[in-house]
Amino acid sequence: MNTKLDPWSSSEISDYSKLFDEFGISPFEDVLPEVPNPHKYMRRKVIFGHRDYGQVAKAMRTGAPFSAIDGFMPSGKVHLGHKMVMDQLIWHQEQGADAFFGIADREAFAVRGFSWETCKEIGVEEYVLSLIALGFKPDGLIYFQSECESVKDLAFELGAKVNFSELSAIYGFSGETNLSHMLSVATQAADILQPELEEYGGPKPVVVPVGPDQDPHLRLTRGLAGKMNMFRLEEREDKTGRKYLSVRGKAAPKEALQELKKRIPGKVKLYEEHLDVLEFTDPAGLKSPAGLKSPAGLKSPAGLKKLEEIVRKVALDFGGYAFLPPASTYHRFMSGLQGGKMSSSVPDSHIALTESPKDGAKKVQRAKTGGCVTLEEQKKEGGKPDECSVFELMLFHLIEDDRELLEIREECLSGERMCGSCKKLASELMHDFLKDHQEKRELAREKLDEYGVNYKK
Ligand code: TRP
Ligand code: SF4
Questions:
Q1: Ligand 1 proximity of 209 Cβ (cutoff 6 Å)
Q2: Distance, CA 403 to ligand 2 centroid (Å)?
Q3: What percent of the chain is modeled with pLDDT above 90?
Q4: pLDDT tens digits for 392-448?
Q5: Binding-site residues, ligand 2, Cβ < 6 A
Q6: How would DSSP label each residue in 367-431?
Q7: Which superfamily, per CATH, for 18-229+324-331?
Q8: Per-domain residue ranges of the chain
Q9: Is the pTM of this model over 0.90?
């Protein structure tokens, strides 16, 4: 029952539903109706889980500021798996997010032993060119961890809030783990919190679209977001069982606590390192005892939000942090073209975005399908699209129109559709996609300056 998620070894995940119970990831279906214009991965259940995505969906609906961030360790060839993540980042940018794209060269240096020059070259030649070719807009930020002072500074500060026992519980780190590897973890947390720094407009919902292998980083970062904040809101209970809210600010300046007392409307008691909110007057003028979840407590969610807002504002005014814990989405991984798992070390299992269109098309022709051994049998029994890597390619990448995809699926199931012609269609689409993508990559090379990427071949 112990599913281990390890960001540095691509362990196969056999049962995604375990992640809900074991790690507290929520089913994406629950928030889907709140998303104004869902991405095809959302509609097709490729994205199966999330943490806190509601706040992001809300920002999309209301036009409030929000961000999306992803990072890539520059480790080798950019392939369809990376395209999935890039597509999601770009989609969020189109929906109004400030988008951030970090090249995790610190991680590649620490974990893979790559030189900075190699990281730069792979980072740009593989990942950045494809990101731009796929449609990332220049108002987003592309950066290298090693060149980003605010990320490095924040990483160091975050490091003060996490000790070795926590890292080994989350990542299985041992006495053999090198220090830079641990620092690269703090750096990834800093990547994720960076959009909430003052220079980018302060606290706001941030989403990190990832595969479930990256969830350990999210758990760490969400915890750190809370620990970094000048104030923490806690529900307490007095001797009579009455609930109230306590604003804890151990490291906060005295003046900040006094200011909070001034700004919170209601009955507030100030102590050395905290304040107790015994009664809160919410925006509608309703007074309520300020417990969080108790029936008698702060009943209006708007009231609680207002209180949180006041606390956040004071923290920022006094130079502190007030991070919102980052949200995330989790997508299913594609399987390998030959069945089994997709792996960058098995060339026939994946298609690189830089592969010649002819070779890419050939790989589709050779891919494992869900068809039967003989045509007669397939006509009678139908095929199995859900066990077919060709169908998966269409579902993930090659067919935009849901209706067309559904038709293919139904024709396959009913035995009307044969693998030969189906593969032919998919391999032509793959050929055209690769050709077009590679032309766009060459155009992207000319535009690197516009994106603030400093690189010459
Ligand atoms: N660890 C990620 C990988 O292996 C890279 C990464 C670095 C990242 N910073 C990030 C991913 C921030 C998401 C968000 O590719
Ligand atoms: Fe896959 Fe198409 Fe064959 Fe169905 S007909 S099993 S979708 S290749």
A1: no
A2: 16
A3: 79
A4: 999 999 999 999 999 999 999 999 999 999 999 999 999 999 999 999 999 999 999
A5: 369-371, 383, 385, 388, 390-391, 412, 417, 419, 422-423
A6: S--S--SSHHHHHHH---GGG-HHHHHIIIII---HHHHHHHHHHHHHT---HHHHHHHHHHHHH
A7: HUPs (3.40.50.620)
A8: 18-229+324-331, 232-317, 347-451
A9: yes
